[in-house]
Each structure stands twice: as structure tokens, then as C-alpha cells.
């Protein structure tokens, strides 16, 4: 089965084909760094990471760009007016907006690493691409798609007939004063800002449009995508809140400037809900990675919790659900450990494997089912049962040594895509085996108090001991 993705632009699944054979140019809308990114934000970033990993698994070289918006994200996203969110955060915190941006951008990149998200080719910052934005804006004015008014520059949406194709929001359906702010200098209420002028703005640049200017939000991504990936790209991703107006405006201004189609595929992840409702600062449920760790969960357990649902379906995050995700992950860790022991002859082959192919056919089926799930628009929920099927087979003793070796190879392949499993580090295995030897020696001396103490200490670390006919085995709790 070929890889198919749901294209938000055409509203249907389509076979994926890159513009250049073997190479994928992908742009991911990143954060606006006026505050700490929360786990809802990271659902979209983890979706982008999964997409890249599956494309690489499928043999593509992925040129991935994820921007960092550090200026120009206006509070009125639809009308292209209002307050720059960076400036608003600076006033609230009483700090320079440049320092605000640097602080939260650093935390964002740190959280990406903690969640196992592979680094993009580049993380361009909006403030470093002012010349590229001005070039596009000047070109749009020259081509009759943009106009200057009262120190500002606006894109005239009626000059782009395809405006609304992505979101379904048509210009004629927009009522002045209803969804967008009416500004007298605009030719149409739906026109959006490419460049703003404000002498009081701290983050500002002198251009031919005036001495106190700064960019509108939408122009930034067009400029950064074009500089680092070219006029045409294969995939553009973001959260569902980016569809309108951000991505709709990106399409209009980019294609009006280049005269070419911008992105072939547009892919959007659904919102993350918390306890069945929206995330809200007033409700205190805009959890960060730190908040999840403070509850005792690892970052890879959080990654698994956010990845295991299909990206185009709403995902409800609860602490009980996070606990279930951690437990499911622990069971997969245990499976990997058992397979490793069988493969290394540290544990006997399963009794049920005698007289069979030792699980080889089972692995072939699991590998095919896993690939079929991800080829179907990254349906992780459809792919994951293949791994848990192996877990059941391990417990049923259906693997020979050869089958375990093959199963481990598949598990490692799958984890290069999922990025959630953890094989026991050699130093941990060595330390635990040392403690088991101490416990065995204590039991031989009939010092059961010390034996129980060692068992309890390991259990407190999340290590469970199992006395089997083949000796003492350990697994993570």
C-alpha cells in the first residue's frame, strides 16, 4: 500500500508523491514564543515529527523547517490588527520582548529534545527574515495584490480568486464589523496586514514603508518557507487553528507573489482536549511538559500519550489516560526485554514455539499491519495493535530464538518511527543483575530480611523481580 495522506486543501485522502523524487520539502508552523508551549501545542509538533519519521522510513530525505515566531503575531488574527503578542507579553512581564522571545524559544527547543522530537533542518526566526518579507511585500504591491494605507500595507484578498479554498471562508460571506475589525484605510474588511506601522512598537524596522514598521503574522511563514525550501514545497503542517486565517493567507500571498502553487499537501492536527473540554488558563489545565513530569510521568510516556491517537481525531488528555499510556508503554518495554533475553539465550525459548516457525510468521504479519496503519494517513491507532500482538505472543511463549531476533528487529524499526520504546541500558542491566546476585547470596545464607530489603529497594525504583525456573528475571514496573 502506498502512503496516503489527507489533504486539507482537497478534503480527501491522496497518494503522497513528492515534487522531487526521493526528497520531501516540509514546513511546520512552529510556536509564537511569548509564553511556555503547552502539551496541546506539542500534539501538533509530535504529529510533524511522526510524519517526518514515517517519510524517512519510507525512503525519503526530508528537508524539514519549523519556524519560531518572535514578532508580529497580532491578537486579531482574522483582521490582521490588534496588539503584537510579543509586545503584550513583554508589558505583562515587565521585560524586553527580545528577552521574552529568547527565553521561551530556549524552553521550547529544550522541550522538543525532552520529547524525543528530531531536530529540524533549521528553526528560522521571524525577526531574522525581515528583508525576505519586504521583498515579497514589494512584489505584491508591484503586482497589484497589496496596497499602502496610513503607514500600513494590506493584502487585497479580492485580487486572489482562490481565497477561501482551504478554509471554506469566502470573502463575500464576511460581514464588515462582524468577524473582522473595520479599519477605515482598508479597501475591504477581509484585507489582512502584511506590514504594520507603530512608533511605540519596541521590535521595529525602518524600511521604505516607514521608520517604525513590523511584519504581520502571515507574511513571516511565507518568507521563511521560501528562503529555506524554495517557491514550492511538498507539505505544510499545523494545528487546526492555523487553517484560517493563517494558512489561507499564506496561500494567497505566496501564490500571488510566485505565480505557482505553494504547497501540494496541507495537513492539520486536531486540538488536544483536557478532561473533555478546551484547554484554558482560567481552568488551570494548560499543562506543560514540566507539569506532566511533576505528576511522576516520563517525557516518553507523555510522547506516547499524545501520539497514540490519530492526529485528525480529537484527543482527550486526562491524568488517568496518561497513567494508562505509561502502563501500556511499560508492557512494551517488558516485551522488548523478554525478546532480548530469548534472542541472547539468557531466557529459554517459549514452550509454545516448539514444532512451529517460532513466531516468524507472526512477525511478518505484525510488520505488515504496522506499515498498513501508518500508510493510511499516519493512523497510529491502527498500527499499534501489531506491537501489542507481539507482547501477547511473548507471554504465551510462542517465540523461538530466531523468532525473537526477527521480532526485535521489527520492534526497533517501529520505534524509529514512534520514538517511545526504551531498551534497558547496559549499565542499568549490570547494576540490577548485581543486586539480584546480592539477593540470591542473602537467600542462600537464609538472610531473608536482606533479601526482602533488596527486592523492595528495586521495586521502589520501578524494577520488579520474577523468580522463574530459568532463574531470577527483572522487568520495569
In the CATH scheme, the class of the largest domain would be: Alpha Beta
Number-wise, the strands total 17
Which shape, going by the Cα principal axes? elongated
Q: How would you characterize the largest beta sheet? A: 5 strands, antiparallel
* CATH architecture descriptor name of the largest domain: 3-Layer(aba) Sandwich
Q: How many helical stretches?
A: 15
**CATH homologous superfamily placement of the largest domain:** HUPs
Count up the domains: 3
Structural class: alpha/beta
Task: Provide the gyration radius in Å.
Answer: 27 Å
How is the largest sheet built, in terms of strand order? 7-8-9-11-10
- The low-confidence runs, each spanning 5 or more residues with pLDDT under 50, are 175-181
Query: Could you report the average pLDDT, rounded to the nearest whole number?
Result: 91
Strand content: 15-25%
What CATH calls the topology of the largest domain is Rossmann fold
* End-to-end distance: 37 Å
What does this structure look like?
The strands form six sheets. A five-stranded antiparallel β-sheet has the order 7-8-9-11-10. A four-stranded parallel β-sheet has the order 4-3-12-13, with helices on both faces. It is elongated and about 90 Å long. The model is unreliable at 175-181 (pLDDT under 50). The chain is an alpha/beta fold and 477 residues long. The chain has three domains: 4-269, HUPs (Rossmann fold), CATH 3.40.50; 305-418, no CATH class; 426-476, no CATH class. Helices cover 44% and strands 17% of the residues. It has 15 helices and 17 strands. Helix 5 (217-229) crosses helix 6 and helix 8 crosses helix 9 (319-343).
Amino acid at each position: 500500500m502506498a502512503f496516503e495522506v489527507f489533504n486539507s486543501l482537497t478534503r480527501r485522502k491522496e497518494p503522497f508523491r513528492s515534487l522531487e523524487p526521493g526528497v520531501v520539502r516540509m514546513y511546520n508552523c512552529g510556536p509564537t514564543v511569548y509564553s511556555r508551549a503547552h502539551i496541546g501545542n506539542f500534539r501538533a509538533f509530535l504529529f510533524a515529527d511522526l510524519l517526518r519519521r514515517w517519510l524517512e522510513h519510507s525512503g525519503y530525505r526530508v528537508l524539514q523547517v519549523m519556524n519560531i515566531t518572535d514578532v508580529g503575531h497580532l491578537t486579531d488574527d482574522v483582521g490582521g490588527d490588534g496588539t503584537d503578542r510579543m509586545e503584550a507579553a513583554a508589558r505583562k512581564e515587565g521585560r524586553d520582548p527580545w528577552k521574552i522571545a529568547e527565553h521561551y524559544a530556549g524552553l521550547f527547543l529544550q522541550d522538543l529534545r525532552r520529547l524525543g522530537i528530531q531536530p529540524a533542518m533549521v528553526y528560522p526566526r521571524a525577526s531574522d527574515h525581515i528583508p525576505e518579507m519586504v521583498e515579497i511585500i514589494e512584489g505584491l504591491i508591484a503586482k497589484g495584490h497589496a496596497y499602502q494605507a496610513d503607514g500600513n500595507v494590506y493584502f487585497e484578498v479580492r485580487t486572489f480568486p482562490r481565497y477561501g479554498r482551504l478554509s471554506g471562508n469566502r470573502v463575500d460571506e464576511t460581514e464588515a464589523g462582524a468577524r473582522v475589525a473595520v479599519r477605515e484605510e482598508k479597501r475591504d474588511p477581509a484585507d489582512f496586514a502584511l506590514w504594520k506601522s507603530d512608533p511605540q512598537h519596541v521590535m521595529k524596522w525602518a524600511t521604505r514603508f516607514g521608520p517604525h514598521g513590523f511584519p504581520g503574522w502571515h507574511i513571516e511563514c511565507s518568507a521563511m518557507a521560501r528562503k529555506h525550501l524554495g517557491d514550492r514545497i511538498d507539505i505544510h503542517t499545523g494545528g487546526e487553528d492555523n487553517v484560517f486565517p493563517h494558512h489561507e493567507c499564506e496561500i494567497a500571498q505566496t501564490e500571488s507573489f510566485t505565480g505557482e502553487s505553494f504547497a501540494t499537501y496541507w495537513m492539520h492536527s486536531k486540538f488536544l482536549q483536557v478532561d473533555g473540554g478546551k484547554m484554558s488558563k482560567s481552568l488551570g489545565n494548560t499543562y506543560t511538559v514540566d507539569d506532566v513530569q511533576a505528576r511522576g510521568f516520563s517525557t516518553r510516556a507523555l510522547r506516547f500519550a499524545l501520539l497514540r491517537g490519530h492526529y485528525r481525531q480529537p484527543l482527550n488528555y486526562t491524568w488517568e489516560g496518561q497513567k494508562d499510556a505509561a502502563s501500556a508503554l511499560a508492557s512494551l518495554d517488558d516485551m522488548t526485554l523478554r525478546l532480548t533475553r530469548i534472542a541472547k539465550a539468557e531466557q529459554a525459548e517459549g514452550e509454545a514455539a516448539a514444532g512451529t516457525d517460532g513466531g516468524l510468521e507472526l512477525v511478518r504479519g505484525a510488520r505488515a499491519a504496522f506499515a498498513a496503519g501508518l500508510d493510511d494517513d499516519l493512523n497510529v491507532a491502527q498500527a499499534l495493535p501489531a506491537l501489542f500482538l507481539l507482547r501477547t505472543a511473548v507471554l504465551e511463549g510462542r517465540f523461538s530464538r530466531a523468532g525473537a531476533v526477527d521480532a526485535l528487529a521489527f520492534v526497533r524499526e517501529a520505534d524509529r518511527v514512534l520514538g517511545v520504546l526504551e531498551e534497558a541500558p547496559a549499565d542499568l542491566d549490570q547494576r540490577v543483575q548485581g543486586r539480584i546476585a546480592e539477593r540470591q547470596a542473602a537467600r542462600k545464607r537464609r538472610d531473608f530480611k536482606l533479601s526482602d530489603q533488596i527486592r523492595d529497594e528495586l521495586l521502589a525504583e520501578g524494577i520488579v523481580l520474577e523468580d522463574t525456573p530459568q532463574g531470577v528475571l527483572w522487568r520495569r514496573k
